[in-house]
Amino acid sequence: MLSLDEAQKRAENLVEAARKAGADAADAIYVCNASTNVSVRLGALEDVERSEGEEIGLRVFVGRRSATVSASDMNPASLATLVDRCIAMAGQAPEDAYAGLAPEDRLLRKKPASLDLCDKGEPDPAALKERALEAEDAARAVPGVTNSEGGGASSGRTQVALATSHGFAGSYAGTSHATYASVLAGEGADMQRDHASHSVRHLIDLDDAETIGNKAGQRAVARLNPIKVESGQMPVIFDPRVGSSLIGHLVGAITGPAIARRSSFLLERLGEAIFDSQVTIIDDPLRERGLRSRPFDGEGLPTQRRALIEAGVLTGWLLDSASARQLGLEPTGHASRGSGGAPGAGPSNVHMEAGSATPGDLMADVTRGLYVTDLIGMGVNGVTGDYSRGASGFLIENGGVVRAVAEITIAGNLIDMFRNLVPANDLHFRYATNVPTIRIDGMTVAGG
């Protein structure tokens, strides 16, 4: 693994070589991921895996034509060959009126923000094994748990360096630590599985392994003896660990490429109230220790905190430079990319701000409804907003959870779902996308 300084210099040298070889413009991105993963099952070590991979990608522009080539060989001689190949490919590419580097006057010029993304220490495999065993042991100790799919612990480091031919060069790194456990409860055909996990930037912020394992065991046991429910319309309450998927559908519909292709169910909704006025959704790439925090985007533009939904109103799109040009707008600092291919657009740390009601308040007046803890399948149409997914969770009757339910389908249209969405006040920051408990009335539930 190159150091950050070495990686940034390698990217700058590659860009300079491309310009000398005839490219009108170029950028290069270096990405390295290194991780150690330890998994256990039934109290025994199952696997220890160490992976480390680094790639560098070069994108060149020759007139209105462009090409991208990536390589994992950092040898200067190999990279020289990469430059020649990339320029030759660009000469054969079709013209694209919207391709190009980010606007020069919008590049990040100051020192990138320090977001506290790197832990100083790195646990050794023995410490990871101990943590994995502790998580699985705690899960298996829950009465009713009968088998295990395993426990695990990991640590990793990611490094990114980006350089462009019109004046940007920057780099940053981030570490990760995670623990998980997955177990089964019950016997035979009646077995149920569930899991728990936690991922953080700094080890000190990680939930202790016993807590994670106990949560996995309790969740699995709670799902035993599920019943089926009669079909009909009813309120659906989403647990925070699955409610975040609704924000994923929103984000997918407001990315620049989807809008430019006119393939989004929110295409004509800019500036409109698509949620209740109590709903605000924030994208915050500058959150300290955030799982998707970044000081600059994939094109060298500065990132900033912004509301995607402000008091229910859709405020704008997530734009990389190409989609911004196509729409006649300015890029928003949301370009995302790997080492291969042109940038796309995507979010960073996203959260829905907490509402005023407790989760109990959301449930109190529900005569018959569902509390969903697991979603299955991908039955969502990004063009029409039609939504249909398999689900499991718990039946709500007269304001309280009464029985586990399984083999159900919940359906609706995201426009109606967003309009009827009510957030609770229990927001916690545990994932890259975070939401409180969410209630949506009027969804169609189909029993098994």
UniProtKB/TrEMBL annotation:
Q: Which residues form the Metalloprotease TldD/E N-terminal domain?
A: 27-90
One GO MF annotation is: metallopeptidase activity
GO annotation (BP), single: proteolysis
Any Pfam family hit? PmbA_TldD_3rd
Q: Provide the leader sequence positions.
A: none
Metalloprotease TldD/E central domain: which residues? 122-224
- The Metalloprotease TldD/E C-terminal domain sits at 231-447
Q: Which family would the database say this protein is a member of? A: Belongs to the peptidase U62 family.
Give the protein name, as stated in the record.
TldD/PmbA family protein
